[in-house]
Amino acid sequence: MQYHLNGFKPGDYQISDAARQPAPPPPMADLPKQVDVLIIGCGPAGLALARQLADFANIKTCIVEQKSGPMLFGQADGISCRTMEIMEAFNSSELLVKEAYQLHQNAFWEPDAQNPQQIKRTHKVADARLGLSEFTHGVVNQARLHDILLDGMAHSVTHLVPHYNRRLLELVVDQSLTQDLDAHPITATFERNDASQSSKVEIVKARYVVGCDGARSATRKSLGIELQGDSANKAWGVMDVLPVTNFPDIRVKSFIQSKDNGAVMLVPREGGYLVRLYVELDLLGKDQRASQLNLSVDDLIARAQQIMQPYQLEVKEVAWWSIYEVGQRVAERFDDIPAGSPDGLIPRAFVAGDACHTHSPKGGWGLNTSLPDTFNLGWKLAAVLQGKARPKLLQTYATERRKVAFMLINADREMSALVATHPNAKKDASSAKTSTADIENFIARQNGFIAGTSIDYDESWLCTGHKNQALASGFPIGQRFHSAQAVRVADGRPVQLGHLNKADGRWRIFIFGDAKNPLDATCEAAKLVKFLADADTSPVKQYTPTGADIDSVIDVYAVFQQQDLTLEDMPDFLWPAKGKYGLRDYEKIFQTSKTHDIFEQRGIDRLNGCIVVVRPDQHIANILPLNGHAELSQFFDGFMLPPQS
Distance between CA atoms of 299 and 296, rounded to whole angstroms? Predict the structure, then answer.
């Protein structure tokens, strides 16, 4: 798709540039007095959480934002492979794939040995993330991702929409009520800052609150949570521009280092014409902020033109620009449980996204770390609020995501140092480097983390079964379910199995069959299906409410090696009757194909098969042998609650 030819216009890219008009201001409505979950902030973390919770009719959610309306442009642009996978869980990946610039190459530029004041391309390489996912890393306006999440919220069963123009004045957690799960211990006081009713104060009582309100988070400050870390005392500029240039790699992500004038990281944007430039600026003094440099966008353009000599760069339009300082900080905690508190306390207030980890934007990790924060937290909140899981589930959010935050800032610190031609203020400011080889090596070494596909959660009661990892070596326990194709038995259609893991709060059990035919009574896969179908033994049936569909809590799929399977021979449990009419579900049984053998691709034991248990956030929770019936029940018994009669 091509757009922005005659100037940048925000909005829905499915509408032509000429016809695209700004959206009208969102309507104002009073805040609810009492909710289950209060979300503060409409960035990627807040909207991803709201998008999940909007699908639960029995959970009352409210999301508020200080700004006057949805984002139009600016800030993040990179959409990692993992974020694409999460958007697929919301049934929303196709639009992003269609609209985004897809990153397939990286180019590296250094001073020309013959003329050091000019740059010369050293080489191009394929992007190191290719092949880590069925999706390719994309680049698209963050506002478009917001639009898609907002659209999903509005069309959900709850028709959830944000409340804009609300500034948080005070957030109080009544500690005497936090361990009473039916109580609403959160009191949030907001001031309306719209023109019509400015200074009107509204109070919301909530069971849980999640602060997704950015690096200067009022929620974090109200909870007394400190950001820990430091600044590199280095300023960078960033701008999205429509250029006319003879630079040959204007549509390739490029790392450009000049001899004396600094560095540029060039990122092509969606639409075929727009380009983002990260421009290295000067060192900052102690306690100096980038905003104090008093630089204009013309200064950024002039610096970029110097760095990119001998190529011409004429900027026709600037869609967005900013100046920032590099710094890496992580919140001391991610919830309201102070360090040293007694074990077993249930958190009621959380921080997510930039409210709990800040860093430079060059790596594209802000959005791509923030959104998975609440993708992790959302299903846990829903499970506890619906009485499906023990409250201790909420304790795992801080443990799992704080580890990722430290990985993020360590990677960002290294990346920021490599991209710059001059070191930060902690090193010898007179020295300069111009080699891009270290950048290339870093990207190759950190490709899984950059893509978000290698992020893993440590061993716990929620990620266990490591002794059985050899049964499926390509599904590392704690990492996300790495999708691969299998063929649906009912209609012969190739299907990405990872796309079955939707953001609907359900657990998934994948049965990968052993070498025996599943119709053979001695087959371990057949014995497992019989166990799961038995009302007296099955954890699936134990946690399914009376009258609900059999897959409403734990959804079971089977993948067999045999090629001569027919649906009518399969056990009823694998193609169950569902819904008010008792219609059969034909989309749960799969077989391998000669061209896409998931057993080979994911290192699954052909002789013995295995069970792969997948969490509602798509991470591998457990791997068990097919005869591990008791262990499977024990796993779910450790944190799930049977339905209330």
Answer: 5
User: Virtual CA dihedral for 357, 363, 365, 366, nearest 10 degrees?
Assistant: 60
Query: What residue type is assigned to position 70 of the chain?
Result: P
Phi, psi values for residue 509, rounded to 5°: -115, 120
What is residue 359's predicted lDDT score, i.e. its pLDDT?
A: 80
533 — pLDDT class (breaks 50, 70, 90): very high
Q: Which has the higher per-residue pLDDT, 145 or 444? A: 145
Q: Is the pTM of this model over 0.90?
A: yes
H or E element in which residue 567 lies: none
**Amino acid 429: pLDDT:** 46
Q: What is the DSSP track for 189-241?
A: EEEE-SSSSTT-EEEEEEEEEEE---TT-HHHHHTTPPEEEEEEEEEEEEEEE
The single-letter code of the amino acid at 188 is: A
Between strands 253-257 and 263-268, the pairing is: antiparallel
CA 301 to CA 291: how far, in whole Å? 17
Per-residue pLDDT tens for 230-251?
Answer: 766 678 899 999 999 999 999 9
The amino acid sitting at 609 is: G
Determine the Cα–Cα distance for residues 284 and 233; give it in Å rounded to an integer: 5
Tens digits of residue pLDDT in 485-520:
999 999 999 999 999 999 999 999 999 999 999 999
Residues 6+ apart with CB under 8 A from 143: 10, 70, 71, 72, 73, 74
Kind plus residue range of the DSSP H or E element containing 445: helix 437-445
Longest Cα pair distance anywhere in the chain, in angstroms? 81
**Contact predicate 7/242, CB 8 Å:** yes
Q: What is the distance, to the nearest Å, from the Cα of residue 494 to the centroid of all Cα atoms in its chain?
A: 26
**How far is residue 393 CA from its own chain's centroid?**
20
Q: What is the mean pLDDT of the chain?
A: 92
Cβ-based neighbours of 129, under 8 Å, separated by 6 or more:
80, 81, 103, 136, 137, 447, 450, 451, 453
DSSP string spanning 233-257? EEEEEEEEEEEEE--TTTTSEEEEE
| Lowest model confidence (mean pLDDT) among 26-40, 68-82, 100-114, 593-607 | 68-82
Q: How far apart are CA 446 and CA 455, in angstroms?
A: 11
Instruction: Report strand pairing: 620-624 vs 610-614.
Output: antiparallel
Report DSSP state, residue 619. B
- Residue 644 is predicted with a pLDDT of 85
Question: CA-to-CA distance for 247 and 345, rounded, in angstroms?
Answer: 58
Question: Is-contact 392 639, C-beta < 8 A?
Answer: yes
d(CA 103, CA 132): 13
Radius of gyration over every alpha carbon of the chain, rounded to an integer in angstroms: 26
